Amino acid sequence: MPLHTDSQYEEELQQLRAKVLEMGGLVEKQIGDAFTSFVERDSQTAHEVIERDHMVNYLDVAIDEACIRLLALHQPAARDLRFITTSLRISTDLERIGDIAENICERAIELNQEAPLAPRPELPEMADGARAMLRDSLDAFLQSSSDVTAAPDTRISLGDKLSDFVAEAPDLALSVCQRDDRIDDLTAQIFNTMLSQMQQEPEYASRAMRILFIAKYLERVADHATNIAEMVIYLAKGKSIRHISPLPESV
Amino acid sequence: MRENITFAVLFSVGLVLLALLHLLFSADTRPQWVWYGALVCGLGALGVALRQQAQFRRRLNDLSTLLAERVTVSSNRPTDAGPGDAFVPDRTPLPAFPVRKNDLLGTVEYQLSRLFTVQSQHLQQLQNEKKELEALLHSMAEGIVVIDPQGNIVRCNPAALHLFGWNPTEDWQGRPFQEFSRHPILHQLLSAESAEGVTQEIEVEGQEPRQLAVSVLRLPQSGGYGTPQGSQPTTGGHVLSCHDLTPIKQLESIRADFVANVSHELRTPLTAIKGYAETLLTGALHDPEHATRFLTIIDRHSERLSRLIDDLLTLSNLELGQTELHRKELSIPELVQEAFDMLREKAQRGQVTLSQHIPPALPAVRGDRDRLHQVLINLIDNAVKYTPAQGQVTVTAALHPAAESVGFVESMESKDPKDPTDPKDARDPKPVPNVTGSQGWLEIAIADTGCGIPEADIPRLTQRFYRVDKARSRELGGTGLGLAIVKHIVMAHNGTLRIESQINHGTTVRVALPLTPPSSEHTVQTS
User: Residues of A at the B interface (Cβ-Cβ below 8 Å)?
Assistant: First the structure.
């Protein structure tokens, strides 16, 4: 990766990456807290998560602006162009996950006003799975973009190590895509359980519906994480693996 | 110096000759030799001056070469050793300054050499200080991360790597901090808007989840690291320090659990006492039939309360290591017999048969009579309590040679002696060295034909207030502390405790005591 001679450009790319990672970290926390508020029936935390969503929105707008600015002023090509467009799309996905965290909290608050239902073991598994997917897809983004924005002296001192680091990213991203099926299966499982419960005991319907919603939300989080991972593969390899089924064994 | 004088003498002699020539002789009688004399003097002075100049130039040239050489050597010299590297001091001597002439240039050379000496002393001092600081940073329990204005890691001590769960082999220097942690609170602390000196608690996820107290110190701009690229940085970077709260939080939750348990256990008998006392006061006192029954209940519960407090005190003393063991030679059959005598009545009431199979020729064990008596009472009492009618409680004792001690010692050191280890250890002796210096172990096994204990509960049996069947054991009058006390006493005797159980078949508790315990330990550290 050649150095950017324009230090202003270099700096702006670094800032963009930092913003995307910041947003990623924030969204990870949001979704984690949202699920905790649901499991622990903690409306206070739920309200806090809803309050914090504006920070996610703010970062989304900031990333959009930064990307547009970079595109307009520097006319990037090749790797840099892919990095900027990927950031643009990842921020959209992250913003959606932020909204989903908000939705989970809303359902949690509603559920807290009624008596608890028996816990479904699939939900924590889904939440852990979806969060791990989000974390790994962001890690993959971090790895694959670390050479675009590494400071020049670091790039020289790290050398091969850095390229190894970058080379691992697509595999990690692919593993995220492969894990999505499991989450989908769990959603179907919850759907069936809740459906039969609603048929047997109609008085549980409103709560069962909300739990079903939460399952669906978690499934959406996993989908967005998969989108991010697909974009990372595009960033690293310049190849799109979207809408390919079955998934390729390796990239 | 000499050249200067020569020059001056020749020059002035020449001048004097010329002046004499001019004053003493008229124009036509001026002698030729004076002319020649003045000429020779003038040429001599010129030669001296030229030579001196050449010499001066040469020395100046030497000096500048030397200077250049020194600057190159000292700038190439490694002044910084990485945190992990062994510091290899560069001992190649720097080119020395010749102090040759006591003239102007000589003074310059002398001052320069002084300057370099002072500078290298300062440099050495700075390097030493730096090494000291690095050693300090390395040995700290608190994690320190120094971050430059661009958000890259400049410095990071091993504790920080450990606390954040980062891979210590990874090269973190110069890499963005965000690559290692995306935690929003950390980011917020590092952003310009946050107040300085605020300590935040964060949770770090990973293989070992930790709770950390993190605070940020902003470095002044002048002391900043790195060169600002493009825009001017608002700060000179940050120092992030973090402190591990995990053990404190764990301790806090253990303490809270303990307080909750104790108050619950104390309140249960107290509620009964208060309830019946109130009933008596509101009139039942004058009803002799009820009054006696109520008073009996009150008596039973107050007894339980006092037993609970006794047990708590015993346990607390044992745990604090304040209990002194009065070691004496003890006969185990005698102790068992005494325990049987105390519990025989209770066993008969529950129609449980007590029996013992103890070989007559057992060596004596050194131990505290009262404490070991308590161990046997607690264990046999438990066995009787949980054995249904027509059941049996059997006490056996056996001798194990010293060679088997390792298995026992291991389970004691893991502080998990209640773990039902494979009895294979005790059965086939392995030729392993004797690590405790004891001559073997005496194992006392208390076996019952009771209800048994689920395997999942066995590891937790010796925890304070842990009950397998909560309703039942309270009904039977237990305090929930018996086994915890047993464990601590046995451990104080350097022994081990093992519990084996099969549901509906019975439980066997094995206490192994070393035959010759280390004689020096009289005060026992159990916790």
Answer: 7-8, 10-11, 14, 17-18, 21-22, 24-26, 28-29, 138, 142, 146, 149-151, 153-154, 157-158, 161
Q: How far apart are CA B452 and CA B209, in angstroms?
A: 36
CB B425 within 8 A of CB B276: no
CB atoms within 10 A of CB B311: 21
**Gap between the terminal Cα atoms of chain B:** 85
Helix (H, G, I), strand (E, B) or coil at B144: strand
Q: Are B174 and A151 an interchain contact pair (Cβ–Cβ within 8 Å)? A: yes
pLDDT in tens, A50-105: 999 999 999 999 999 999 999 999 888 888 899 999 999 999 999 999 999 999 99
How many Å apart are CA B505 and CA B87, to the nearest integer? 67
pLDDT of B430: 37
Centre a 10 Å sphere on the Cβ of residue A175 and count the other Cβ atoms it contains: 14
Token readout for B268 is 């249960």
- Exposed, middle or buried, B190 (CB in 10 Å: 0-12/13-18/19+)? buried
Residues of chain B whose beta carbon is less than 8 angstroms from a beta carbon of chain A are 150-152, 171, 173-176, 178-179, 181-184, 187, 229-231
pLDDT digits (tens, 9 = 90+) for B286-337: 888 888 888 888 898 898 888 888 888 888 888 787 777 788 888 888 888 8
What residues of chain A lie within 8 A of the CB of B178, using their CB? 17-18, 21-22, 25, 142
Show residues of chain B in contact with A28, CB under 8 Å.
Answer: 182
Chain B residues touching A138 at Cβ < 8 A = 182
Distance linking the first and last C-alpha atoms of chain A? 20
ipTM > 0.85 for the complex: no
* Segment A121-145, tens digit of pLDDT: 888 999 999 999 999 999 899 888 8
Which of B152, B171, B184 is closest, CB to CB, to A161?
Answer: B171
Residue of B174, B176, B183 lying closest to A157 (CB–CB): B174
Which residues of chain A have a CB within 8 Å of the CB of B183? 25, 29
Closest CA to B162 of B208, B217, B131: B208
Contacts of B524 (CB under 8 A, 6+ apart): B321, B323, B324, B325, B492
Report how far residue B402's alpha carbon sits from residue B379's, in angstroms, rounded to the nearest whole number.
25
Residue listed under structure tokens 């290692």 = B180
Closest CA to B95 of B110, B115, B116: B116
- Closest Cβ–Cβ partner in B179, B187, B230 for A142: B179
Q: Are B401 and B429 spatial neighbours (Cβ–Cβ below 8 Å)?
A: yes
Q: How many C-beta neighbours within 10 Å does residue B267 have?
A: 11
Measure CB to CB from residue A25 to each of B174, B182, B230 and give the nearest one: B182
Distance from CA of A47 to the nearest CA of B (A): 18
Nearest-10 crossing angle of helices A7-39, A205-237: 160
H-helix or E-strand spanning residue A17: helix A7-39
Best mutation target, A6, A12, A14, A55, to test chain B (most B CBs within 10 A): A14
Decide: helix, strand or coil at residue B416.
coil
Give the whole-angstrom CA distance, residue A140 versus residue A135: 9
Residue B27 in this model has a pLDDT that exceeds 60: yes
Q: Which two tokens stand for residue A143?
A: 């790895």
Query: Amino acid letter at A210?
Result: R
Using CB atoms, pick whichever of A8, A138, A157 lies closest to residue B182. A138
What pTM did the predictor assign?
0.60
The two three-digit tokens of residue B342, written as one number: 């105390």
Largest CA distance in chain B: 170
Tell me the DSSP string of B355-386.
EEE--S-PPPEEEEHHHHHHHHHHHHHHHHHT
**Which of B68-82, B241-255, B480-494 has the weakest average pLDDT?**
B68-82
